[in-house]
Every structure is written in C-alpha cells, then in structure tokens.
Design a protein that fits this description.
The complex is a heterodimer of chains A (295) and B (517).
Chain A (H helix, E strand, L loop, with lengths): L7 H22 L2 E2 L1 H4 L1 E8 L6 H9 L6 E6 L1 E9 L7 H13 L3 E9 L1 H29 L2 H25 L2 E2 L1 H31 L5 H33 L5 H20 L1 H7 L4 H10 L1
Parallel strand pairs in A: 1-6
Antiparallel strand pairs in A: 2-4, 2-5, 3-4
Chain B lengths: L5 H19 L15 E2 L1 H4 L1 E8 L2 H21 L5 E6 L2 E5 L5 H9 L8 E2 L4 E2 L1 E6 L2 E6 L1 H26 L5 E5 L3 E7 L5 H7 L5 E5 L10 E6 L5 E5 L4 E2 L3 E9 L4 E8 L1 H13 L5 E5 L2 E4 L11 E8 L1 H13 L6 E9 L1 H54 L3 E2 L1 H31 L3 H33 L2 H35 L8
Parallel strand pairs in B: 1-21, 12-18
Antiparallel strand pairs in B: 2-10, 2-20, 3-4, 4-8, 5-6, 7-8, 9-10, 11-14, 11-17, 12-13, 15-16, 16-19, 17-18
Helix pairs in contact in B: 1-9, 9-10, 9-12, 10-11, 10-12, 11-12
The chains are: A alpha+beta (295), B alpha+beta (517).
Chain lengths: 295, 517
C-alpha cells in the first residue's frame, strides 16, 4: 500500500500554488484566442516550391495592408498558416491569391480558409463560456444528488482545479484557444468527474463498512484499492490521446494536447484534491449514515 | 450476473452480427436499398464550403416605414386629421398633430381591429408601437412586428439563395435557416467559394428608369454612378420596369456588335409597360440600374413591343452569365453579409481522413496490446468487446447517416481509450473479491454487481458533457459530441452483454481453477 496520505499537505500546497499561478496567468497574460473567438481570417497554404519561406511570405503579405499578419509553418516546411485580424475588405482572400500568384508564381494551393466575423466570434465565445458553465453546473447537481455535500465540494474543487490549471498551462505556453479546446475542456470536466466519482464510491463504501478507521487512513485505503483501475484507465486514455497527438494531424494537436493535460491533472486531482478535502471536512461514518436515514 | 438464458445469447449474437453487417456497408456495396446507408463525411473531411449569411434588414425596415408614412398620412387625411412634421429617423417615424386629435390617433394605433396597425392576436402585440415624447408621436416596429418582418425576409432570402445556388449546380447543397436573420449554406466538394460568394453578395435589384435632365422630375430623381464608376447620371425615381417583370434572362453573343449581352424576356405586364415607355420615350436614355448602379443607359430608337430586349454593358461572358443567373433567380429582399466562412480543400480533407484513420488504428492497437498484456485471457475478452463496440458505434452512425467530422474521429479514438474503463473496473473488483472469496462464480458475480454504480456514475458524467457539447457546439464539435455520446451507449452494451457473456462462458468452464484473473 502506498501512503498517499503522507503527502496530502504538500500536494495541497502545490495545487493551491498551481491554481494561483494559473489564475494570475489568465488574468495578466490572458489566453491566446484563435479566430473562432477573436474573429479574423486564417489561411492554410501548401506550397510546392521549397524555396518559399515564412519570411518571404510575410514580406509579401505585409505590403497588402492586412494589419497584424502572423505567418507560421504548420506541421511541415511547405505548409503555412496565415492569420490576420478582421478587416472590412470582402474580397481579401481573392486579393491574397492574386498577390501570391504574382510574386511566387502559381505555386500554392489554399488548403483551408476560415473567416469569422466579429459578431460570430463573440457569439462563439459566449456560447463556449455558457457550455462550460452549464457543464460545471450539471456536474454539481449530479454529484450533489449522488453524494453528501462534503463529497460534492471535493469533486467540484477537483474539477475547477483541472480546468483552471489546464487553461493556465495553455496561457503559459501561448497555445491557441479555439472551438476544439472548448470541446476538450468539456471532456476533461467529464473525465475528471468520472475519476473522482470512482474513488468516492469506494470511500463511501468503506465508510459504511468500517466505523473505526479514521478518514485520513480510509481515503488512503480507498485510493489504493482503486489505484490500478485509475492507472489503467488513465494509461489507455492517454495512449489513445497520444496517438491522436502524434498521428492525427495538425488540426487535432491542440485538442489532444489539452486533453492530455486534462487527463493527467484529472487523475492527480481525484487523488490529491478530492480526498484531502474529505479529511479536512472531518467526514466520518456518521456523515454517510445520517444522509441515508434522512432518505 | 453471470447467468444468460439461451434466448439472450441468441439475441446478443444476432445484434452483433447485424451491426457488423451494417458497419461493413460503408465499405462494401449492398444492392439492398434498405441498407444502402453510409456515414456522411463532414465538410472538414470531404472538403467544401460553409457560409453563414446574415440578412441586413435595415433597408427593408426603412423602406417599409417610408411606405407607411404615406399610408399614415392618407389614412388620417380621410378622417380630416392633419399630420405635421412627419419624418423618418433611425428606424422611427416622428410626427405631431393638434392636441385634440391625439387621443384618436393613439386609439387608432392601439385598437385590435386597427386597419392601419395590424394586430397579432397570437402574440398579443401590434405590428407597430406608438408612444409620445415632447409632443411628438414616435412610431416604430414592435418586437413582434420586427420578428414577423425578419422571418418573412428570411423566407424570401432563403428561396432566392436556393435558386441561385441551384442554378450553379453544386453537389447536394445544404441551405438552412439560422435564427430569424441568418442563412447557413453548406456546399460539399466546393473548394473555391469565390463565385458563389460574389453571387450571394448581390441583391440583384434591377430597375429600368429614364435618365432625366432636370432634377425636378415629378417623381424625384437621384444621382447614380455607373457600374465602372466612370460617370454619373441623374435618374428618375419612377420605375418603368423591375426585375419582377422578368420571365427569363440569358447570356448571348450579339452577332452585330460581337459583344456579350444579356437578353431578357418580360411577362405580359412588363411587356405592355416596356412597349408604352419605349414608344413615348423615343430619343430618351433608359437607364438599366442594378443595385443602385447604372449598368448602361441606351438611347431608345424604336418602340419595343415584343416584350424582350437586351442589356449590354461591356460584359465578359462570365459576368453576363452571372447577371443572367441573378436576374432569373430574382432579387434578394435585403442585402446579405457573409459573417462566417470556412472552406476546406479536398486534399486537406483526404489528409485529415488518413491522419484520423492512422491515429485510430495506432491508438486502438496500443490500447488492445496494453489490455492484453495486463489481463491475458480477460484482456482478449475485453478487446473483442472493444472491437465490437467500435463496430456498433460505426453501425449506429451509419443507420442514422450521421455526419462524421475530424473531431468526430477524435471522439471515436477517445471512446476506445475510455471504453475499457468499465471492464477494468469490473476486473479489478473481481480481483479484490477473489482475495476473500474462494468460489470463482461468486467472486465474479459480486465483482460485476459491486462495480455497477461506479460504472454508471462514470458514464453518466461523460454523457452529460457530451450532451451539453451537442447542444451548444457547432459544426465539427457536434460531430465530436455525437461519437462520444453514442460511444457511451455502445460501450455499456459491449461491456454488459458481450464481455459479460464471454466472461460467464469462460468462468463457468474453468470455475475449479485457481487464479483465474
């Protein structure tokens, strides 16, 4: 048996600092919103001329009065991702095509073009925030129906921890937040809850069984009893996600990365946030039995 | 938990075979039309364009209110009430009247039988709202009035958009309403939406009006630019003909001038009016105005009574074809703005499919290998259930002819990773039970029973997240929530029916052995 409970305090301090740092990052550095949420135009280009580089492309585009243009390689050397903010020119994509054809010859294929107007982007941002809030609320309600309030508090804190730290990491690394990241965050919410609930189920079962074991010991027993399941499920999920990350193409990179972070944090928090909370709230056999006698 | 009746076993086997059959119909072709179903590929996988159009209703509202000021004045004139200082400002009509008539005007507007201001009994609202401010009456559209107006202009616009897109003849376009002022257009397989965008960007409001010299035309006149912005001309506001009178329009090569022109045919009313205008107006210039710009203004030489004519204006064959198409399909009630556009080229779509499949195969293989190493014979059972799970998932997507997107493939891969969770929960529980229970059958049975709540909890939480995503997400993300959500049900089925059946068969054969798992 591993003495997870020996490190409750240390890891709680770590979690609190991680959340604090993440919040500070989110407030002061902010998130790198993609065009889905900020509006603007994105063009994915493939050139069949090796000599074309990001800087030559950037030079060409900077003459076009597009405002702040970002040009990056996307996956490999001949694929480029061009991004710029909204502008009023309706035919901007056609003009870029003409200008690039003129300067580099007919060497490009436009693989992907996305243009999101300011109204749509603010709506997408709003609906993303609503989706995550609704998900958190529903989880709260679900866990509140299923468990006693001490457990609910623990699960929700674990959930917030995972979401905040994942977003904090995205802020720190300057990774782009787009629609698929919202999907990832929602899946993380589901996964983190899932992981916590499995351990909590066992804690509650053990609480009913043993009246003489203190919650400090009891959580540790429960973590250990469910540990191999926790690890196996995390490993298979991570295997699937790593496979998406490495082989699923550039478009899914952000999504799978967010999920990978989320699964790691979710596994960690269901052990080191969800359980210490029960200890701090002095959960005992009475907590579980009292709730049942009420029903 | 380990007992299966014969009937149940047959049921499980036949369901499995059915789904294998359905899933395979995506690869093999069946002549049977019932099963001739396929998973649709989303625009991000097959390539294509997604356009979200917003109808700009401002001109419609202003036009309607402008017309209303006339009926308002006439209506009260008949009742001997003078309306003063009437003007239109920022989608509001302002007017004043004598103190003694105020009550009457207010009553006219708020009467449910009002002829002037239609009442919608279903919504308990009038079309227009009236209120008084600083001795002025202010009239504007009520909330419901605005909704009615927007809905009707959306219906018209949808029809015109459909006609224009049908004229170009793209593959199975998808044209849908969004809200009450938006239209969603999905064009699979289209990798350059430039032409469609330019066609949808035009209102195509065509009018024939005389060019006048004096600004004191009795109908009023306005200064309009030529299409090529080279010149301006004063054009009467009196409309001789409009696009509505057109029966047909076609691009043609004029054999005399060797120029591309658009020929048109008028309906009966149009032909009559055109004949009359051309007979009285010989020597005058007739301006052909499209969306507020003059295309050309030829001088009338003869009476044209045939009801057909031609428009020249330095067209290329392409621009003449487009103009003819726009005229045939009719004018939009209001301008459309493209507020969101996403286009994926076919080669990127194919790359995404390939990448998605490779990731799926590798992810699947890694998970299967890991589970086999971990659980041996029970790993095989889990893996078999996992394979069937995947086939069920594909089968259900096929039955509903669901749309598979790249995030949707990610959802399938994620399902593979998370699907083993339920079996892992069960097997780990059985291991624990075996520590205190010597009888294999009892231990397996209670392992299944005791792990059930945890499994349900785990799946409900994921399902909640998927449902929210389905209702809040858009496009590709919906595809992710769909596969993730369906995956939960197929997972539960494969765990509780297939894996459990196989486990039961194995355990009952080997119940005397020690160390089963």
């Amino acid at each position: 048996m591993i003495a997870f409970n020996k490190y409750y305090n240390r890891f709680n301090i770590l979690s609190i600092s991680l959340v604090t740092i993440s919040l500070l990052l989110l407030i002061f550095k902010g998130l790198n919103f993609g065009i889905d949420f900020k509006g603007g135009t994105l063009i994915e280009l493939r050139s069949n001329d090796q000599k074309i580089t990001t800087s030559s492309l950037r030079d060409n585009l900077s003459q076009m009065n597009l405002g702040d243009v970002s040009v990056k390689n996307f996956g490999n050397k001949t694929d480029f991702l061009i991004k710029f903010e909204n502008n009023s020119n309706k035919n901007v994509i056609e003009e870029i095509k003409l200008s690039l054809d003129k300067s580099f010859g007919n060497n490009f294929s436009f693989r992907r073009v996305e243009k999101v107007g300011p109204k749509v982007s603010s709506e997408l941002l709003k609906s993303g925030v609503i989706a995550i809030s609704v998900a958190l609320t529903l989880m709260l309600i679900y866990i509140w129906i299923r468990f006693e309030w001490q457990f609910s508090l623990g699960a929700i804190l674990a959930l917030f921890h995972d979401v905040i730290v994942t977003l904090g990491l995205f802020s720190l690394l300057g990774l782009e937040i787009n629609l698929s990241i919202v999907a990832a965050v929602l899946t993380i919410v589901g996964y983190s809850m899932n992981d916590t609930v499995v351990i909590y189920d066992r804690v509650r079962e053990n609480l009913r069984k043993y009246s003489d074991i203190k919650i400090f010991e009891l959580t540790n027993t429960s973590i250990n009893e469910t540990l191999s399941r926790t690890l196996i499920t995390s490993i298979t999920t991570l295997l699937a996600l790593l496979s998406i990350f490495f082989f699923g193409g550039e478009i899914l990179k952000g999504f799978s990365l967010a999920m990978i972070f989320g699964v790691i944090f979710g596994t960690y928090s269901s052990i080191y946030i969800a359980n210490p909370i029960l200890v701090r709230l002095n959960v005992s056999q009475k907590t579980v039995l009292r709730e049942e006698s009420k029903n | 938990m380990l007992y299966f009746s014969k009937f149940r076993i047959i049921f499980i086997i036949s369901i499995s075979l059915l789904f294998i059959f359905i899933a395979s119909s995506n690869i093999l072709k069946f002549s049977n039309s019932l099963l001739n179903k396929k998973i649709n590929l989303g625009l991000d996988l097959q390539g294509g364009s997604y356009l979200l159009l917003e109808i700009d209703n401002t001109p419609v509202i202003e036009q309607k209110l402008q017309n209303f000021t006339i009926s308002l004045r006439n209506y009260f004139k008949d009742k001997n009430i003078r309306i003063n200082n009437i003007k239109l400002d920022n989608q509001k009509i302002l007017f004043s009247t004598d103190q003694k008539n105020k009550q009457f005007i207010l009553e006219t507007f708020t009467d449910e039988e009002s002829e002037l201001n239609p009442y919608y009994p279903r919504f308990k609202s009038h079309q227009l709202e009236i209120f008084e401010e600083n001795n002025f009456f202010i009239v504007n559209y009520s909330r419901q009035g605005l909704i009615e107006l927007k809905t009707s202009s959306q219906d018209q616009a949808l029809e015109i958009v459909r006609r224009r897109i049908d004229e170009i003849g793209t593959n199975e376009p998808n044209i849908l309403k969004r809200g009450n002022d938006r239209i969603l257009v999905e064009l699979p397989g289209l990798d350059d939406p430039m032409r469609i965008k330019s066609l949808l960007g035009k209102t195509a409001n065509l009018t024939f009006r005389f060019v006048t010299n004096n600004a004191e035309d009795s109908f009023g006149a306005e200064k309009l630019e030529y299409e090529d912005e080279s010149e301006e001309a004063m054009v009467s506001k009196r409309i001789i003909l409009s696009g509505e009178n057109l029966l047909d329009a076609q691009p043609r090569m004029d054999s005399e001038t060797n120029e591309t022109v658009v020929t048109f045919t008028l309906d009966r009313v149009g032909a009559k009016r055109f004949g009359k205008a051309t007979s009285t107006g010989i020597g005058k210039q007739l301006a052909i105005v499209l969306d507020g710009k003059i295309i050309s203004a030829p001088v009338i030489r003869d009476t044209i009574a045939s009801g057909s004519g031609q428009i020249s204006g330095g067209f290329t064959f392409q621009s003449a074809t487009d103009l003819a198409l726009l005229l045939r399909s009719g004018a939009l009630p209001a301008p459309l703005n493209i507020i969101e556009e996403r286009t994926v080229g076919p080669d990127l779509g194919q790359d995404s499919i390939n990448a998605g499949l490779i990731a799926l195969i590798i992810g699947f293989f890694l998970v299967i290998l890991f589970i086999f190493v971990k659980y041996k014979i029970f790993g095989l059972i889990t893996n078999l259930a996992l394979i069937l799970n995947l086939l069920f998932l594909v089968g259900i997507l096929t039955i509903f002819e669901a749309t598979l997107t790249l995030p949707g493939i990610a959802g399938i891969i994620l399902t593979v990773g998370m699907a083993v969770d339920a079996n892992v929960l069960i097997f780990e529980r059985i291991k624990e039970e075996l520590k205190s229970e010597r009888n294999n059958l009892i231990a397996f049975d209670s392992g299944y029973t005791k792990s059930r709540t945890a499994i349900l909890d785990a799946n409900i939480t994921t399902l909640l997240a998927a449902i929210i995503l389905f209702f809040m997400g858009s496009g590709p993300i919906k595809g992710f929530s769909l596969t993730l959500g369906i995956g939960i049900f197929t997972t539960l089925f494969s765990v509780y029916f297939i894996a459990r059946l196989l486990t039961a068969l194995y355990v009952s054969k080997n119940k005397e052995k020690g160390n089963l798992i």
